[in-house]
Amino acid sequence: MAVYQYVARTRQGKMVTGRTEAVDQSTAAKALREQGLIPTSIEVGTAQAKQTKAIRGRGGAVKIDDVVIMSRQFSTMIRAGLPLLEVLNILADQSEKRSMKTILKQVERDVETGSSLTEACQKHPRLFNTFYVSMVKAGEASGMLDTILDQVAGYMEKVASIQRKVKSAVMYPAIVSCIAILITTFLLVKIVPVFVDIFSQLHGQLPLVTRICVAMSDAIRHNLLMVLVGLIAAGLIIWQAGKTKGGRRAIDTWKLKMPIFGPLFLKVGVARFTRTLGVLIRSGVNILNALEIVARTANNVVIEAAVMKTRSSIQSGETIAGPLRESEVFPPMVVRMIDVGERTGALESMLTKIADFYEDQVDAAVAGLTSLIEPLLIVFLGLLVGFIAIAMFLPLFKMVEQVQ
Questions:
Q1: Mean per-residue pLDDT for 137-153?
Q2: Which of 100, 171, 337, 396 has the smallest CB count inside 10 Å?
Q3: Residue 400 has pLDDT above 70, yes or no
Q4: Residue 276 pLDDT exceeds 70
Q5: Phi, psi (rounded to 5 degrees) for 43
Q6: Running DSSP on this structure, what letter comes out for residue 300?
């Protein structure tokens, strides 16, 4: 008895998929009709073969670079005149990520059974976010899917580039700081106690720096477990707070106001806002829908709230610039340029110029932070280790002087 993969329509018009066992294809079709299903596709094959085909490929999460490559290939093949189903089949077969392969196969099946590409993509928000789906919808409606997908790929490349630069600016000091903490902890837990045994044989009072260092060593050694538990608990509390509306707002507000990195995060937010809004308007998306999409993809609830307030104000007949100015989130230059773009009818062009400017500002900020933080961290690490070294050897120097 063979296993058949089927696609069928219910009496209510809903499309369903599944597997059934039967002697032959006609028997499988008859069994489906008896269940109240109208088969549109019945393919023979073993369940094991289907599963193997579905899961072939590397594992791992789908990254933004994977989506960029897929979008470029999608655009190229559509522009070359290939049928949509064939394009989806090719994209799925050549995808290296198992999860992306599975999703694209499902999208292909949905389109084959009568769904639009937009409807098929909406079922998989893990791969196709709100921005992507809206752009696909605009491309289908205008008949310019290849051009729209090319714009999506270009937009996502810029977003990925900014994300990489910000990560490099944040990760470097974070890694060096962790290394400094580990080295200091090792010295205080393992090295300082050895010197304490030597100091116990000395007569007289130890220097102040030595006493401070010994006290730090005792505190860490005797409370190391409590410190670790406290740090883990603090991390979990912050993580859980980030899932609540108030906690997320507090964290995002702090991110925009924190020293050194706050201005960088604000520049990234402005660049993302203007770039996304400009691409959506260029693609013909309604301004109200565009602002809603921008808010959902802002990755910062403070900016999201400002954009949603702007959207509500526009529904009441106001301009974009006014509510943005009242939010006090966006820099005055951005608000004024948007205002000029609205009054002159060149909003899309102005948004693109703002995005280009702030992306350049992000590049300059990351380069400046890297050049500034590197020597500061080296000096900090040197002072930390130097303090411990001086604290340990100062009593020994005094002991040598007394012997002489």
A1: 83
A2: 171
A3: no
A4: yes
A5: -115, 135
A6: -
- Hey, where are the domains in the chain? 2-55, 64-156, 165-404
Q: So what CATH class is 165-404?
A: mainly alpha
Q: What is the mean pLDDT of the chain?
A: 80
**How many angstroms separate the CA atoms of 42 and 103, rounded?**
20
| Superfamily of structural domain 64-156 | Type II secretion system (T2SS), domain F (1.20.81.30)
Bridge partner residues of 7 (DSSP)? 17, 41
pLDDT of 399 reads: 66
Give φ, ψ of 126 to 5 degrees: -65, -30
In the block, residue with structure tokens 């090295």: 191
C-alpha 394/C-alpha 403 separation (Å) is: 15
The Cα angle at residue 229 between residues 226 and 230, in degrees rounded to 5: 85
Alpha carbons 183 and 378: distance in angstroms, whole number: 13
For the stretch 312-344, pLDDT in tens is 888 877 888 888 888 888 888 888 898 888 888
Q: Contact, 311 vs 288, CB < 8 A?
A: yes
The pTM for the full model equals 0.64
Cα–Cα distance for residue pair 303/272, rounded to 1 Å: 10
Nearest C-alpha neighbor of 3 from the set 45, 52, 53: 45
Count H helices and E strands in the chain, helices first: 17, 3
C-alpha pair distances (Å), 103 with each of 43, 91, 122, 125, 331 = 19, 11, 11, 10, 40
Strands (E), 91-206: none
Residue 250 corresponds to which amino acid?
A: A
pLDDT of residue 9: 66
Instruction: Look at the block and give the residue holding tokens 């960088």.
Output: 264
pLDDT, residue 54, reads: 38
DSSP string, 331-365: -HHHHHHHHHHHHHT-HHHHHHHHHHHHHHHHHHH
- Please give the Cα distance from 162 to 360 (Å, whole number): 10
pLDDT of residue 183: 83
Q: In CATH terms, are 64-156 and 165-404 the same topology? A: yes
pLDDT-wise least confident of 50-64, 176-190, 207-221: 50-64
Q: Rounded mean pLDDT of 229-251?
A: 83
